[in-house]
Amino acid sequence: MNMKYGILFVVVVVSLLLAISLGQSAGAQNGVEEIKIGVVAPLTGGASTTGLDMWQAAVLAKDEINAQGGVNVNGVNMQIKLIQGDTGTSPGTGVTVVTKLITADEVDVLVGGFSSGITYADQVVAAEHKVPFIITGASSPVITRRDDIDTSYFFHHCPTTDDYGEDTLLFVDEIVRPAINERFGFPADRKLKLAVLYQDSKYGVGVYEGITKAIGEHNLNVDVVAAEKFKMSETDFRTVLTVIKASNPDVVYPAAFINEQTVIVTQGRRDVGLDTIYLSVECCDDPDYYTGVERWGEYSIQESRFSPYTIPAGDIHDSVAQYKQDFEAKWGVAPSMMGSSTYEGVYIAAEAIKNAGTVDKEKVRAALAEIEMPQMVEAMQNGVITFSPDYRESKFELYMQQLIWDESVGETRPKIVWPDSVKETEFVLPGWYESGSAPTETATATPTEAPTTTPEEPGFEAVFAIAGLLAVGYLVLRQRK
Amino acid sequence: MDIGVFIQILVWGLYAGCIYILLAIGLNLIFGVMKVVNFAHGEVLMLGAYAAFWIYTYSSINPYLIIPASMLLIAILGVFIERLGFRPIMGTGKLNEIFLSLGLIYLFQNLVAFLWSTNSRSIRSPYGEVVVPIGAIKLPLDYLIIIIFTIVFIIAFQLFMKKTTTGRAMRATSQNREAAALMGINVERMDMLSFALGSALAAAAGSLWLISGQMATPYMGSIPAIKAFAVVIIGGLGSIPGAIVAGMTLGIVENVVPLLMSSLVGILGFEMSFTAWKDTIAFFILIIVLVIRPTGIFGEKGE
Amino acid sequence: MKLDRLKLDRMNLKAWLGVISLILAFLIPIISGIDTYLLTVLILMLVFIMYASAWNLLALSGQGSLGHAAFFGIGGYTSAIIAKSLGLPPLATILVGGLFAAFIGVLIGLTCVRLREWFLGMVTFGFAVIAHTITAELSWLTGGWDGLPAKKIIPVSVQNYLMYEYYLMLLLTVVVVVIIWMIMKSRIGLAFEAIRENELEAKVMGINVTRYKLMAFAVSAFFTGVAGALQIHHFGYITPEVYAIDISFLPIIYCVSGGLFTIEGPILGTIFITLLDEGLKNFGWTYERYIVIGLILILVVRFLPKGFVSIPEKIKSRLKSHP
Would residue A230 count as lying in a domain? Predict the structure, then answer.
């Protein structure tokens, strides 16, 4: 027993000593000319895989820049120093860590930011201290559009949920819809029936809003026949997929994380028999997804901007290959998507400071607003990284890939099918594909169907409603006793 | 909603219920014998899934054959948890059990994340693409195996508890600890055994879940564990038949109610999706049951 | 006679320690200058001292909540919404936030009156999940997943506003802790303890168990709501992340490690664990931090059931037994 107390005491004392280091490391400063960049990313909690990738990519960018002599700031070569900021899973941690980066570490620029909910709170601190923040992870378009704080210091270098929805829907309207019409002999103006299954979070709701926006803005010939939500980390999608199946969709668009997307596609095809084209958001373009989804993912569509298994053709090919090689050489693992935009984010920060000729925050902000640099490892629109004048967003050239079975690895592998500029192969509508409705769907078919199904519903539900009322009544009576 | 769809949903609920039941029986067994509750039971499930994953990765044999190995490993872990964690604090107040479990949750989740990252892991089932048609319903073979496993286990478990000496001793311990000790039963060994068995069951649930197409992450255990607690509470602490009935019911109800709610709201003229309310509904049910019967539906006296 | 003096000495010692730490807390901004990071850490620490003390009060009555984030978030949202729609200053709306949290607390308490230990834990945990879902769903009121901007307690335009905020928080924390301390020392606190020790006996003694249990819920939820409102008015923004499971678990970790059912336990625990967490972060530690916190919690429950506050006593008794 006494020895155990001893152990406890050692633990307590050691932890206290560690805590004391808080003040020291925060206060430590040195005189070397350095550019300090704070990397804000979740290194603990459910999103930490992404956060780690962001940090590793930033370190790679820093090493490369420093190896080439650093950043030439008004004739002086300055080295870059990165400072890690773990935002964890709660806005509280995020705010503390960003405050620390800004005021204790005195960073010149912030790069990163993943979860939108946490970034919203971080931004308040960054705006107050007027620190330029290149946001490379959070996908909500609100980030640079909110009006409760001054957003002029925020630069959004990653596609927004609006962009996901827009490009994916444009592809569906341009390629998938005609292919379905041709296969089943539908008239060319038949509306494509889309079902959306989205995560109940800022990310999922954002993608859904992006979809409806895109349909309206581009006047797409697409009908949303079902829109269902699910709770984050849900594992059982059979019921909701059954409901979706009953709405007869031509295409299903889940807005999910990879562990959810894997299960949605597997359960959809294997359990529910919803043999359709599944779309997916870019974050699912990850080696774990290909392993997890097995053959069920065959022919599904992924929007992407940086893939572990394919490299878009064209000018960008060599630099992506080089980046992948360097990243693997440094870290022993393959790079993934969020890291690649953070990698670019560090380069953007360096370029802006070079152009500004100073680390003065206001001047760096001005330089960021006017930045124009060639694309690096992700394809940009017009091949240039630049921030739009209105909401300071860079515009990515997103592409669509289709998962094709590769017998040699026993998994599916992506092939780029859209847009034409980087396309590797043509989109394939698989033989097992079932469209949402019978070939001869005309204006007369729907009205006859509808009356037969609707009257059944109230009767069925009424039973449950009455049961519910009885339960409540019982409850009340019981309490009264 | 037509009746075919409804039946299908019932079947999915049944399958989901199996995982809850495996967890709930383990919890019930531990509670019965020791009168403690391991809130970190979901983390035990998670560790079981990871054990299965690593054995599978290094041996690549049929994943179903791995389950016993995973169960054995986690049973040993269960003994450690019992000996080093729960036994020393037995009798120091129920709140301490909750706090200890909380510490275990933090420890296990972050240890796994630290050692093996938070990447999603999966096991490929050899029968992943086999679907068995039963009447109008197409049931994947993996689910059939899980359902059969659960049934076989429940029967074996009941036989063990009723026919073997050890099982009888465990039942005696859970009925009256002091009397059992006086009768010469080694109650401490029963404690250890119950923790080992309960943990092994959680490991089985985790492995089966992983093989049937789920992905393993350090956080995978929390939701099923919470549901299993709800099942145990609704069914009544210590009641195994209660756990079975409640597990099945919860599996079905949480799937059906969101749809009914959507239709009900639809009748009123609103369009709203309640499918994200599954957990919320599970808790509503739990709270209603507890308000009516604080000891659960099948619980006799509870605590 | 001797025993009485010993007791008095200990009380004196405690009082002295309290006064000294208060003076220290008051001097920190003056010694360190206006260090924004330090002040942010300290402000959040103060918020959590209030929060953990409020949780501790509920635990005192034998009700260990696992879902206090519900009150924390409800307080925050109520205050943010009212401050925004009525244009009232945050200092006024914080009280409304607390009151509404207390109202919800009584409702939740009603369902929990007949429940004990982990039945109650599950139900409170469930209420946090339900509050989360409903908040995200009521997007016309709460902004849904986009959340709401919340007014700063002291406008950013005020010079050194963070320092004033710190002193304001310090004052409020002292007030809250003193009120909770007075409740704990009063007849109400004794009744709570009697209920926790043995509900049946308490009933026999003539204590209205239901009333006191509800009172514990109301008071605890009130101060939790106030703490939540203070936190989001400090951040300037609120999102449904405020209902995160971690927010429910943190006060438990603070209270248990510091010392349950004591007034100084939650304070000590909050300071210690917060500093530890921040300190370890500077080593680049990520998961290791939580592993350490988990281990501390397990070790404390196992070997130091009365928390850090009992360490001096333990040392004393050890010295006595091994002269």
Answer: yes
Domain co-membership, A293 together with A416:
yes
CA B149 → CA B46, B64, C81, distances in Å? 19, 11, 52
Work out the number of other CB atoms within 10 angstroms of the CB of residue A227.
18
CB contact under 8 A, A465 and B128: no
**How much is the ipTM here?**
0.90
How far apart (Å, rounded) are the C-alpha atoms in residues B81 and B197? 13
- Looking at domain B3-292, which CATH architecture does it have? Orthogonal Bundle (1.10)
- Pairwise CB contact (< 8 Å): C118 & B286: no
Sheet holding A277-278, edge to edge: A222-230, A192-199, A251-255, A277-278
Residues of B in contact with A236 (CB under 8 A): 12, 16, 255, 278
Question: Are A247 and A331 within one domain?
Answer: no
Q: When comparing pLDDT for A17 and C24, which is higher?
A: C24
CATH number at residue A208: 3.40.50.2300
Using the predicted structure, report yes or no on whether residue B14 has a pLDDT greater than 70. yes
Domain containing A289: what range?
A: 162-304+398-422
Name the minimum distance, in Å, from the CA of A373 to any CA of chain B: 34
Mutate which: A200, A225, A235, A472, vs B, most B CBs within 10 A: A235
Instruction: Report the relative pairing of strands C148-149 and B137-140 from DSSP bridges.
Output: unpaired
* Structural domain boundaries enclosing C119: 35-244
Dist CA A297 CA B124 (whole Å): 13
Taking the C-alpha atoms of residue A226 and residue A42, their distance in angstroms, rounded to an integer, is 33
Cβ contacts (< 8 Å) between B122 and chain A: which residues?
Answer: 262, 288, 291-292
CB contact under 8 A, C302 and B100: yes
**CA torsion sign, C192 to C194 to C197 to C199?**
negative
Q: Within this chain, do residues A192 and A268 fall inside the same structural domain, yes or no?
A: yes
Instruction: Answer whether C88 touches B (CB < 8 Å).
Output: no
Q: What token pair was written down for B265?
A: 């709201």
Sign of CA pseudo-dihedral A7, A9, A15, A21 = negative
Two tokens at C6?
Answer: 């010993």
Look-up of token digits 């993608």:
A207
Output the six-digit token pair for A407: 């017998």
Does A49 lie at the interface with C, CB-CB under 8 angstroms? Answer: no
Question: Which helix (H) or strand (E) is A465 found in, with range?
Answer: helix A456-480
Distance from CA of B83 to the nearest CA of C (A): 12
Tens-place pLDDT, residues B151-174: 898 898 889 988 999 999 998 998
3-state secondary structure of A314: coil
Q: What is the rounded radius of gyration, in angstroms, for the C-alpha atoms of chain C?
A: 20
Cα separation values, B163 from A423, B155, B160, B169, Å? 68, 12, 6, 10
Cβ of residue B54 closer than 8 Å to a chain C Cβ = no
Tell whether A288 is covered by a domain. Answer: yes
Using CB atoms and an 8 Å cut-off, which of residues 137-166 of chain A contact chain C?
A: 140, 142, 146, 148-149
Same domain, yes or no: A47 and A166: no
Q: At residue B254, what are phi and psi to the nearest 5 degrees?
A: -65, -20
A85 & A136 share domain: yes
Q: What's the CA gap between B206 and B228, in Å, rounded?
A: 13
Q: Could you tell me if A280 and A272 are in contact, meaning their C-beta atoms sit under 8 angstroms apart?
A: no
Closest CA to A121 of A151, A160, A158, A91: A91
Chain-centre distance for alpha carbon A178:
28
- Does one domain contain both A265 and A406? yes
Sign of CA dihedral A47, A50, A53, A55: negative
pLDDT digits (tens, 9 = 90+) for A236-286: 898 899 889 989 999 999 999 988 999 999 999 988 889 999 999 998 998
Q: What is the pLDDT of residues B204-232, one digit of tens each?
A: 999 999 998 889 999 999 888 888 888 88
Domain check: are A299 and A199 in the same one? Answer: yes
Q: How far is residue A35's CA from residue A350's CA, in Å, rounded to a whole number?
A: 8
Distance CA B276, CA B264 (A): 16
